[in-house]
Predict the 3D structure of the following.
Amino acid sequence: MMHDNGNAAPDAMKRVLGVIKSFGLPRLIIIGFLIILWTLALVIRIPMPALFSDTLVRLSMNAVLTLAMLPSITGGTSLFFGLPLGIICGLLGGVMSIELNLRGFQAFFGAILMSLPLAVLVGLGYGWLMNRVKGSEMTVGTYIGFAFVSLMSFGWVTLPFNNPEMAWAIGKGIRVTVSLEGRFSGILNNLWTITIAGVRVPTGALLFLGLICLAVWLFYRSKLGYAMKFAGMNPKFAEASGINVNHMRILGIVISTVLGAVGILVYAQGFGFLQLYQAPMYMGFIAAAGILIGGASLKTAKISHVLIGTFLFHGILVVALPVANTVATLGSLAEISRAIVSNGIILYALAQKGGES
Amino acid sequence: MSKNTNATKPGQDWNLSLRKFLTNNVVTILFLVVGLGGLKVSGLSLPFFIDDIVNRVARNGFMVLALIIPVLAGLGLNFAVVLGAMAGQTAIIVATHWKIGGFLGILFCFVFSFPFAYAMGLLTGKLLNRTRGKEMITTLILGFFANSIYQLVFLILVGTLIPMKNEVLVLSSGVGLRTTIDLTDGLKFGLDNLLKLPLTLFSLIAGIVLALFLIARYLIKKRKASGKQVSLAGTIFGAVGGLALALWGFLQMSQQTMFSFLRVPAATFAVILLLCYFIDSFIRTKLGQDMRTVGQDSHVADVAGIATDKIRVTAMIMSTVLAAWGQIIFLQNMGTFSTYGSHENVGMFAIASLLIGGASVAKATISQALIGTMLFHTIFIVSPLAGRVLFGDAQLGEFFRSFVAYGIIGMSLALHSWKKHMQGKLR
């Protein structure tokens, strides 16, 4: 018995270390950071229920954008830094829905419906390009995204949208931020909200997120979804077993683009504004950081990574701002720590052995 | 029949080489056309434009040249020059705080920024050895990451952990630096003012020097049968251009025109020329040759016994240090700098300049860097004005400008990777 026990202790140690290793050091750091922030918030008497409500709202707003990283990663094209392309399609859908003077659910789902064909087209084009730049998808994607944002800035000024609600008082073009008040602002976030122990739960928004996750989950259970995952994991083997890897890569990107378009509309309804011009530029990095914090790598990702990552990342953002403001009266500290966390986690993922492209 | 083919052969030859020239330089020619067209549309007066472009080349040239060495070592376009720029700015902040101005201040900045830039280059190089094949995206994200660390230091730590008492530099709360720092009574023109020449005299001297240099190089290379030959057409073209420039300067000197009032920071150009000479001779050294081997094929380099990892780190260190100095030169010419913004776009603008000059991810030369800087900044100057004339909105021109900068980088990266992909397929 003694002998057994003597062996068990190092074994357990090893197992714990193994769990930590598979869980990932950065995730542990971030969870620790979040716990420290929460404790601080408790100490300085920031109302916790409000914090949790905000975290839930932020989760429901941002998770679809983070989810847009998933098909691209599993399809074999790594992090989807071309996310601004999908976002712009979604914004175009939103702007068109206002132009058509839609309101309420009609406006929200109308915007999604109108952005879908655009997103599919853009995704096809982007996917075609990505098949020609294998190995540098992320760098090319980043700059194609940046260039597209600048091109569309041109577009927001010149496209023939005439609704005075969106126009500048003087000059041409659409405003930098278009208010969704009376259109579809809060359409999901304010749907079926219930309050549990002071925490306001945006049930509608969470349900919508659940539905989308379910759809993606079902897709991965389908034959096509399985083929895509397989092609992404082991392209050579997949090619040998008769799967057209290039088509699967394009499929992943198209789904990612579509999710990006839907994601920004979900985000916009929660935020209350459509942010045009330069705003989409860096959103891809934030979404990428989200899924990486959740435990994804450059080659593997799961829906659970999306949900955990978005919760942790945006949980930190929600609590960091009031804490930083009270502790040090330095508002910029929250923004700086966000940038350090999000870019740091992407660098960490790039430096991992497993993620080689 | 045979006579006929013989007669057309020289013509065809010339035709072929022309076509080759055009396809090899399609990007540069395209931007030359866009830039000249924009210049015409914008209605800028020529003296004003020349004054602006000469100053811009003087202040940006060094940074663009700092990108060449990593390209040589196969690290691609070094977006992490931003880190070097931060090191340079750190030195400038310290110099301004200690009130060291003028040329002495510039020298101080060069020396003071060196250890910072060296350390950052070392770390970047080590990181890039862990992210082989993904160097460019790594340097890009690293730039963002370092930017937030920089903000943390100068916005939060200064005044809290780092004691600094300076009412001009530090915000009234005592924590963090102000968003803009004025260098007027300190480093401004510290290098430029060392020697400023009238544009006319400068172009006379520069033209003659260029022509003599090209002719001498041609003659020397011709005598040495071995090695790469310099093309006669290029030499003649360059020499004639140089002489024309000299003649123009001479003619302008003899009569009072708008051009007579323009002055050129000759000292800054001398420093840039020195860097060109340094890069050119560095490539010929053993280390430079090793770097090229690593850049062309790191497996071959490994087999040949070259310490690939170490060479890559060296290349990053050199590039980062040069970038730090480049940023110092840039800011002493600007005279004022935005503490948290001046470095942000440095990498993108420099890389876009290099690419417009016709460089690629795998190949970049000094002349491409200089020509590219000139063309990129031509577009930079003219596009808001051209936008106002063409669309009635200067902002559209600015959007076009950033579209050009991002688009050229995206396109060039895509084309390069596409080419590699196709070559891989053919193999």
Observations:
- The interface with chain A takes residues 127, 130-134, 136-138, 140-142, 144-145, 147-149, 151-152, 155-156, 175-176, 391-393, 395-396, 399-400, 402-403, 406-407, 409-411, 413-414, 416-418, 420-421 of chain B (CB under 8 Å).
- Chain B has 16 helices and four strands.
